[in-house]
RNA sequence: GCCCGGGUGGCGGAAUGGUAGACGCUUCGGACUUAAAAUCCGAUUUCCGCAAGGAAGUGUCGGUUCGAGUCCGGCCCCGGGCACCA
């Protein structure tokens, strides 16, 4: 297997060992019950046409080092790779060229796979997965059906951007200033039927589950902030028109109830119309029209001035019976709380700003305990005591909060409430290139019959929507009918009615559907015989790209299973990843969605754990040479291919790890690669002689000095510890220190040389295999067990102790280990560099850290 | 605005409260060479000094400590996240 080259010829060495590994497969994960398991996972990539970016191999190298190290330590390692292959770029390419997105996707995968393999990563390629493979998305669809039957998937009218000119739905980022980015046509908000997943039902568990996972704190905080739990109360205000019932608001500050001087409804609030008096009708209508045309971005732009309109109606404060005006303003959000607030301008920044603009009353009801004589500037949002609050005056705000909520509750006007910023997950896309949603739409009677046949597949409440006066009901495909594959289409362009290109495929969309088998025939043909055949229309929305990545880590444990998404044995064996490495850009969405699905799977007994990712790590971004983010337009992009060609995969791997801490954002330095490359060449020249075999200075009979052995064992320990702690840069430094020392030795024992090559192997695996063979060692560097570290070797007989006078370094001395304080003081007094600083002074205090430092404090 | 993370030589970075700058890059000097590259040896925080040596020094100001890059408080700058969530 070993190559013939005399010098370090990585062009020859790397492909040779890669093909050797492909034959011997040291990367294959087993089911060995004796060995402990370790599952280390990279976030799988979207195989873009641009190919691998230098940021990809950064994280992949780190996990590969860990995988190889763990194998050497006797672990059964699962280290897989796959493709998050559904995605918008492939669809856009298909729209342009008319070729099927799958063709382009497979080409890109081919290129990605080639590039990744060129880096020598020890992935178990038998377990490769592809989210666009029907054998994979069959189970994505299956999980959707589990969500559906548990009532966690529903349809709802949701506002989207509609461009009448282009007859298509546009994404938020495709709309600029109320016009389409492409074509500059006017766009409008239109409510379209969308699938939504009830992630909010898991809000509490998604929040509490964060406590038990080993994640970066910043990521946990981000998720917690995204979920945004807040506790408060719902309070009902009376309305003058009793027929309308009450006006319910959510507040976290019920203690400020006496300071409520007006109320605000979101423009979309159900009572907005009913509360508008005839005199205000015109102004309100104009305001609502204007609000409807604003994008979310425009509405949430903090820089803009708050706007609103008076409805003409009044509500009654349940605490003091005060009559307060009801306004409509778009600074109140419709999707949060009840979509209405009690405004307390004295103690809320936003209300204060609005009240100032419209001349509304401001009533302070909280005062800080140490209020300045002139009173506080409003709005005051801090701690304090109640004033002007009837019977509650004088109470601390925390106590008042409790008492007022309780008192109102006893009159039925209030109840404690919890709200979340987290919204349900908009799960449908009007796209072709995604997993089809395995649902057909039928009439009421057909739905009820289908449900009777198989009640377990339906949610408690039927999922339905109304269109053109007809109500349609959702019927799931039987699980046995999965996967539901994408039909061929003439054009990948959206249908023009706000639906995906799938809507144009009449013989696929309009069908006779067999509720028993899930079989379908075009509705244009005759109805097949049998009571289970019903007239149906298929769902034409597809799933978002997040779907496939929500559970892929589970599929790796048992990737070719066609009976289940993974067997219980495989799931028990591997569980979730022991380590998950990927970019911080997924801190919220991917990681939150995957946790949600995992918890649902846990609830139905399909997975044994409640949390999918127990330990998470984010690699930092690699910037261009200029310190800017790498981008084509800046021309500072570094391709792994180029570096492999010029310096080899091992040098690239080493350099990516040597650049700095894995989690740090750091610039690429083209000269730095030379440094690690030189290091490898230096090791080569010290191990391989001119004849291409073991270097003459390496011998079995060589007795290494204690200093060399100490350094070797220190290195074995430090490299192992550093890999575990993911401090790869310092591990490499330590190996360089060892190499520098070995280089100076006239002779080195073979066992020391081999141990060194062993610790280098996870970092530079091709190089290590080659040198290992050249040294005439049996077996392979990749399968040899990790060298043993001997603690006795690490402690030297002598240590350098530092002498300080008044905390300043004044000299040092090599002394025997375990030197006593008295002896150290003696030596310090006698030390030629220290003595002058002690002359004529008395020692006031002695600080002695054994084997390290002696600090003499003198007056 | 709020919440995080970070400021260390010419550069990337290293330092359980205990010799600041390991390791690498760069640069300079030397060896080898007809020469160059490669390689090898040495130097490379700043200031003063021929030198021995001394002084200052981890964004900034202050504090705790025998001792602070490290801990505490204020400020400045950079990066990331959130952003009318009542």
Please state roughly what percent of the residues sit in beta strands, choosing from under 5%, 5-15%, 15-25%, 25-35%, 35-45% or over 45%.
15-25%
Q: Could you say which structural class the secondary elements and strand pairing correspond to?
A: alpha+beta
Question: What is the CATH architecture assignment of the domain at 229-420?
Answer: Alpha-Beta Complex
**What portion of residues is helical?**
25-40%
Contiguous low-pLDDT stretches (5 residues minimum) are none
Distance between the termini: 71 Å
Mean pLDDT comes to 91
Tally the beta strands.
35
The CATH class of the domain at 229-420 is identified as Alpha Beta
Globular, elongated, flat, extended or rod-shaped: what is the shape? globular
* CATH topology descriptor of the domain at 229-420: Isoleucyl-tRNA Synthetase, domain 2
Using the CA coordinates, give the radius of gyration.
35 Å
Task: Describe the structure in your own words.
- With 859 residues, this protein is of the alpha+beta class.
- Among the domains are: 153-197, no CATH class; 229-420, Valyl/Leucyl/Isoleucyl-tRNA synthetase, editing domain (Isoleucyl-tRNA Synthetase, domain 2); 640-793, Isoleucyl-tRNA Synthetase, Domain 1 (Orthogonal Bundle); 797-858, Ubiquitin-like (UB roll) (Roll), CATH 3.10.20.590.
- The chain is built from 27 helices and 35 strands.
- The radius of gyration is 35 Å and the shape is globular.
- The protein binds one RNA strand of 86 nucleotides through helix 7, strand 11, strand 15, helix 10 and strand 29.
